[in-house]
Amino acid sequence: MSLTTTRNMHNGTKIPAIGLGVYKAEPGEEVYQAVKSSLEIGYRHIDTASLYANEEDVGQAIKDSGIPREEIFVTTKVWNDEQGYEDTKKAFDRSLKRLHMDYVDLYLVHWPVPGKFVETYRALEDIYEEGRAKAIGVSNFMPHHLIELMKHAKIKPMINQIELHPELQQDETRKYCTENDILVEAWAPLGKARYFDNPVLQELAAKHSKTPAQIIIRWQYQTEIITIPKSVHKNRQEENVNIFDFELSNEDLEKMATINKEKRIGPHPDEFDYDN
After folding, report:
1. Active-site residue numbers?
2. Is the N end or the C end of the chain the one with fewer CB atoms within 10 Å?
3. Is position 270 within any domain?
4. Full-prediction pTM beyond 0.85?
5. What is the Rg, in whole angstroms, of the alpha carbon atoms belonging to the chain?
6. Is 233 part of any known ligand binding site?
7. In angstroms, rounded to a whole number, what is the distance separating the alpha carbons of residues 30 and 32?
C-alpha cells in the first residue's frame, strides 16, 4: 500500500487511488511548485480542469519533473461553456496544447449541463476511440443523469467525480456507481477543513495518533473512493498521504458513517446556475 496503489477502471486502465487536486491553486509559480513537490513526494496522479486556468503550469511541472509521462496519471475536464459536440472537441485540443501533452489519462464532463451533456459525452467517446484519452468519465453526475446518459452512450463512463467528504457521503450515487462498475472519485475530499473539530474525527485521530485529514483520507482509501486532496504546501502534501501505517476498524468505519449530513459545500447539480 502506497501512493502507487491503483484502482482498475472497467476498461482496464489503472488510476492511482490518491492524487493531487489543483482547484484554486494559483496559475504560475504556486501551482507549478505544488505539482513539482507532490511528484517529488511520490504522487503520480494530478487532477486539473479547463476552468482552473492552470493546465499550462501543471503540464510544465510534469514535463520538468523528468518523470516519464506514462508514469503520471493526468485528468482534465471540459467546462460548462465549452460543452456540445464540436465545442468539446475544440476544448480538448486547447487543453492538450496547454498541458504540453498528446494525450490525457482521463477526460471528464465537468458538470451535467442540461440539454448538452449527452452530446458532450459523445465527443469524449470519439476522443477516447482516437486514443487521445486513456479513459473518460463524468463529474457531478447523480444517478438520474447517469441513467439519461446511458440511454445514448456507446461507452459507459469509467469514473464519476463528485463532491464527497464525511458530511456528504453520497450513499445513493455511490451505490449506483458501484452497481454499474463506475469508479467514484471525491472532490473537496477534506470538506475544505471545515469540520476537523468534529468529535468523531477528533476521537479517531486521537485513537490512531493521526490528524483529522489523515483519518478522512484513510476512510476514503479503505472504502475505495479515489481521492484528490488539494494542497500547495509540501509538508501538508506529505501529511495527507501518510496514511499507510494504520487501518480503520469496522467500528471506526461505522463511526465515520455517523458524520454524514448530506451537507454540500458546492452547488447541487440540479440547482447549478448553468447560464453563468
Report:
1. 52
2. C
3. no
4. yes
5. 18
6. no
7. 5
